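Appendix B. Raw example, untouched.
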Amino acid sequence: MVLCGMDILQNCAAIIFAADAAGSEGLASTALRLGFGHAEDYSKLANVPPKIFQFYIVHGALPDAAKVRLVRSIRTSPEYARKYAPIICALASGPRHLIVPLIDMGFDEVLFLNDPDNVLAQKLRGQLLADLLFIESPHYFGPDRRRIELVDRGDTRRKAGANASGFRKINVKRDPLAGISARYIS
């Protein structure tokens, strides 16, 4: 996806969360190689230009409990741009069945860093300029986790109020130049 003659990711910053400096530096280097305009460890957030669109990239080596806390803290932020920002989990490699538990945690996307760069960049670009479905329920707020299930769209588990869970759908659109828009659709 090209925006004004350049890659759309050039208008974005990758904010890195990793367990150590080596993991952070590795992810920052990868983010820059994939086309991000800026990449910084979260501890150096002051180095990121103000008002730039931010992705949160989380190293898969962080313990699951830390990943859950991190996703929850971002999604409950009072800052609109942070609350709806893309949260990406980056794994060095591994079996593809690892994706489902990470999506269940609330990640927007899971990257396997041994995939080709063009595949990784396309997955990241897919978080921008598209209508995305978020779910708000008493126990979850984030991207629609059911998008990876093999459940028919007419299945009762896919309807608001099914199993007395009660949830609302939110249409989210992320644009690095115009910002984030979100509106309830049910």
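End of appendix B.
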